[in-house]
Amino acid sequence: MSNDKLTPAPIVGGGINTGSFEQPVVVTQMLGIGPAEPIREETLRARFLSFEPLFDSASGLAAYELVLRGRLAAAEGDDALAQMDEDMLLTGLYSLVQDGLTGELPLLVRVNPGVLFTDFPAQVNHPNLVWIVAVDSEAVFARMLALRDTGLHFCPILRGGDPHVVDSLDIWPHVMCSAALAPPAQAAASHFIIEGVAQAATLERWPEGTWFKGSLFTGETLTREEDQSLARRLDLLAVAMRQPLDTLINFFKLNPDMGQRLLDIANSPAGALSRPADSAGHALVMMGRQRAQRVAILLALAGATPTDETRLYAKTAFARALFMGKVARMHTPAEDAAVAFETGLLSTVALAFERPVDDLVRKLGLPTAIAVSLGDQALPQNILLRLAHACESNDVDTLIALSRELGVNIDSLSAAYLDGVIAGESLEAALT
User: Fold this and answer.
1) Residue 165 predicted with pLDDT over 50
2) Which of 218, 233, 256 corresponds to the end of one domain?
3) What is the mean pLDDT of the chain?
4) Do 161 and 85 share a structural domain?
5) 352 closest CA partner among 393, 305, 392, 314
6) pLDDT digit string (tens) for 88-130?
7) Is there a contact between 144 and 133 (Cβ–Cβ < 8 Å)?
C-alpha cells in the first residue's frame, strides 16, 4: 500500500524486594504511582514489561528476553533506580511463572549477581527460564555452578578477558557477549547470544546456532513514553506472527489492559465465534491458532485505545483480507486464498507502524510470498491487492481490466467487496 495514505521478601501489592532492606518494599509505592494503595501485579506488568525477541542468523525467532519497556535513562548508574527496575522486572516474572509460563522457546531474564544469593531463582525455576548474569567475582561463579547443579539454567556474560567465563565456555549452554567482540578461539562448544547487532556482516563472524538481538532485526528501539503504545503493538504483532497460541496467551497475561479490546474484536464478526467469549484467554482458546493470530493482528493495527487513524488501518486491512481471500477462492487453491487473505490483513502494517518493510520482515518472519507482496505491491502477482485498491478508489477502468485478467465477473467482485466493507464496518464498531 505504498500509495496509501525480582533475600526474597513477601510480595506486597505486587512488589518483590531483592535489595538489602529489612522490611518489604512495595515497588509501586516507591515509584509514587498512586497515593497509598498499591497497584495490582497485572497493572505493573502491563506498564513495564515486554518480550524482546532473539533471532537466529536466518531471522527465525529463537528465544525471548523479558525486559522493562521504556526504561528511564536516569536509571543508568543510579543504584536506587536500578533496584526499582529489577524489583519490577522480577515481580512480573514471578507472577508470570505463577500464572503458568508456557511456550516452547526459552525465556531469558537479566539479573544482578546478588539475586543468585537469594531464594528467588529456586522459587521460579522453570525448564525454559535462562538467567543472564555478569560473573564479577569468584563467589558469583561458584554460586552459579551450585545453582546449575540444582537444575537452573544460566547464560553468563562474556566481557573481554574475564577468566571465569573464558575458562568455562564449554559448560554453559548459552553465553552472551557484545557484537563488538571477536568470537573466542575456544568457543566451538558454546551457544552464543550476541547483542547490539546493527549490521548484517556481524552474523557471518559467529558459528552456526548463534542467536542475535539488535536493531538489525528489530529496528531502532522505541523508548520515549509516547511511543510505548506503538512498541507494545509491534510486540504483539511479532508474537502473533511467529509464536504458538500459548505464547500469545502469555502476551495478554503480561499486557492485561489489552485484553478487553481483544475480547471486543473476538466477539465481533472478525472473531467468528459460535458463542461469546468472556475473557481474552477464553477467546484465544475458542478461536484456535489461525483465527487468534488474525484477531491479534487487527488489535496490533488498532491498538488498545484506537485512534481514527489506527481504526482505519485495521478496518481497511480486514476488509481487504476478506475481499482478497474470497476472490482468490474463485480461481485458486485454498492455500493460495489463505496467502491472499494474510497479504490483505498485513497490507497496512508498514504505514501503521511507520517502519520500512524490510525491518518488519525481519521482526515478523513473514512468509516469502507475503514479504514480496508488501515490498512491492505493484508486482504482477499482486493483482488482488491492486484490485482491492481499484475498488477502494472506485477506479472502474482498472477494475474492469483486472477482472478480465482474473476471469472473474464484475458482479462477483462487487459482492465480495461489499462483504468486505460490511465486515470492516462491524470491526470499526468494535473498535469504537
Assistant:
1) yes
2) 218
3) 78
4) yes
5) 314
6) 788 878 877 877 666 678 889 999 899 999 999 988 888 889 9
7) yes
Residues 192 and 239 in one domain: no
Contacts of 158 (CB under 8 A, 6+ apart): 165, 166, 169, 175, 176, 177, 181, 184
Identify the CATH number of the domain in which residue 283 sits: 1.10.3210.10
Do residues 287 and 244 share a domain? yes
Residue 362 has pLDDT above 50, yes or no: yes
Crossing angle of the two packed helices 396-406 and 410-430, in degrees rounded to 10:
110
* Burial label, 318 (beta-carbon count in 10 A; 0-12, 13-18, 19+): buried
Alpha helices in 243-367 (DSSP H): 245-254, 259-266, 280-302, 308-329, 334-345, 349-353, 357-364
Burial of 278 (0-12, 13-18, 19+ CB in 10 A): exposed
Rounded to whole angstroms, the Cα distance separating 67 from 50 reads 6
> What is the distance between the alpha carbons of residues 343 and 367, in angstroms, rounded to a whole number?
10
306, three cell numbers = 484506537
> What is the model's pLDDT at position 143?
94
Q: Does the global pTM surpass 0.90?
A: no
Instruction: Say how far apart CA 121 and CA 149 lie, in whole Å.
Output: 13
CB under 8 Å, gap of 24 or more: what pairs does 198-207 form? 203/57, 206/57, 207/183
Tell me how many degrees the CA angle 236-220-247 measures, rounded to the nearest 5.
20
Rounded-to-integer distance, Cα 208 and Cα 316, Å: 41
Matching residue, cell 546493527: 198
Do 213 and 322 reside in the same domain of the chain?
A: no
Residue 314 contacts residue 298 (beta carbons within 8 Å): yes
Q: How far apart are CA 419 and CA 411, in angstroms?
A: 12
Q: pLDDT, tens digit, for every residue of 375-431?
A: 766 666 688 988 998 898 888 898 899 999 888 888 899 999 999 999 999 998 889
Is 8 contained in some domain? no
Alpha carbon separation from 362 to 56, 60, 61, 279, 358 (Å, rounded): 11, 8, 9, 32, 7
Dihedral sign for Cα 29, 33, 34, 37, please.
negative
> Within a domain: residue 214?
yes
Give the structural domain span for 152: 27-218
Split into its structural domains, the chain has a count of 2
Domain ends where: 191, 218, 245?
A: 218
The answer to whether 293 and 394 have CB atoms below 8 angstroms apart is no
Q: In whole angstroms, give the CA distance from residue 343 to residue 95.
A: 37
Other Cβ atoms less than 10 A from the Cβ of 199: the count is 10
Integer angstrom CA distances of residue 432 from 261, 281, 308, 421? 10, 22, 9, 17
Co-location of 291 and 416 in the same domain: yes
